[in-house]
Amino acid sequence: MGSAIGDTLPLALGIAISPIPIIAAILMLLSPKARGTSVGFLIGWVLGIVVAVLVFTLLSGLIPAADPNASKPIAGTIKIVLGLGLLLLALRQWRSRPKPGETAALPKWMSAIDSMTAGRGFVLAFILAAVNPKNLLLAAGAGVAIGTAGLSAGSTTVVILIFVVVAASSVAIPVIGYLVAADAMRGPLDALRGWLVGNNATVMAVLLLVIGVVLVGKGIGSF
């Protein structure tokens, strides 16, 4: 189980450090309907991560079991493909960095956050967590690592739970913090939003590059 946790933690951090959902959550916390919308967003974010990693874990469990010391070409090939996908996304993110003096462009849907309801916040977060290509690749990598580790049902549940807690923490912490101390959180949240907007592409490019290389390396090591 320890090995599976170690393999999935970097992938969980990759989801957790995604700037776009954090920015979206912060904008919701600074909007007129902060409490309802942000809670809906958090629930959708957590559920989306759970569904994504669970689906890939179940699918990976269909890969024929092998001797722990034997090569695992199927799992290795999947990891290499996923790693290469993350490297391509890293290149795309790097090229999308704003030029000096240029304002970073954000998704157009963020302009509608002020009028967003809790239900729409839930749907948006679920899509960002379970359908967004970057998160999908990271969840797939985690699912393959868990599903091919030969764990019992109980151990699998524990690993998935740890993965989800880490992956969802970056959205959960500001939302819960706001619910506890709204006035004290407004200033720091606004400052964090500004930093993330300016450094979104750079942060994600470096993160995806590192995780992609690690995943390709683990894939090669499976042969």
Describe the fold and architecture.
- The chain has 223 residues and is mostly helical.
- 77% of the residues lie in helices and 0% in strands.
- It has helices at residues 2-16, 19-29, 34-60, 73-95, 118-130, 133-147, 153-180, 182-221.
- Helix 1 runs parallel beside helix 7 and helix 3 (34-60) runs parallel beside helix 5 (118-130).
- It is globular.
- The mean pLDDT is 82.
Indicate the percent of residues in helices.
Answer: over 70%
Whole-number average pLDDT?
82
Rg calculated over all Cα atoms:
18 Å
Q: Sketch the topology as an H/E string, one letter per element.
A: HHHHHHHH
Note the main sheet: none
Number of helices: 8
N-to-C CA distance: 21 Å
Summing up helix and strand content along with how strands pair, one would put the structural category as: mainly alpha
Low-confidence stretches: none
Keywords:
223 residues, 8 helices, single chain, mainly alpha
List the helices and strands and how they pair.
Layout (H helix, E strand, L loop, with lengths): L1 H15 L2 H11 L4 H27 L12 H23 L22 H13 L2 H15 L5 H28 L1 H40 L2
Task: Write a brief structural summary.
With 223 residues, the chain is mostly helical. It is built from eight helices and no strands. The longest helix has 40 residues.
